[in-house]
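Supplementary Note 3. Input sequence used for the single-chain structure prediction.
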Amino acid sequence: MMQESENLVDLFRFAEDDEANWPYLKEYRLKIEEFLQSRSFSPEQEIRYMLIGLFPLYRVKNLGSEDFSTNRDVLLKQGTYPQNIRQAEYFNEKAGFEITSSLHYYSLIKKKHGKKISANYLVDFVIEGKAEE
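The predicted structure, written as discrete structure tokens, is reproduced below.
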């Protein structure tokens, strides 16, 4: 179990460029690393962690005027990097479903469209499943 969680954390870790583009992602990563020093993710937390780990791919797709999906064929047609395809496939397998659109993704992270995302929101969502108020 611990080995799988460690692989999950590595697979969905943000790239340095992502943390440079969205500084709250680094703050979020540091808080999650602190959490994982004394405990491991529950299955529900793993799903939420993967959802947040997909955030940079979601943003890139939307900034490029493409709809976000974790469907492998769609990602291949869009020229998505192999690392991101691995993330999507792993998510689909563990979650038991695919993300079908950008709006579907936003509903899964319980975020109100157009509101700013913060490190604290991301941590509360992953750890406690809290939705935005």
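The chain has one domain: 2-128. The chain is about 65% helix and 0% strand.
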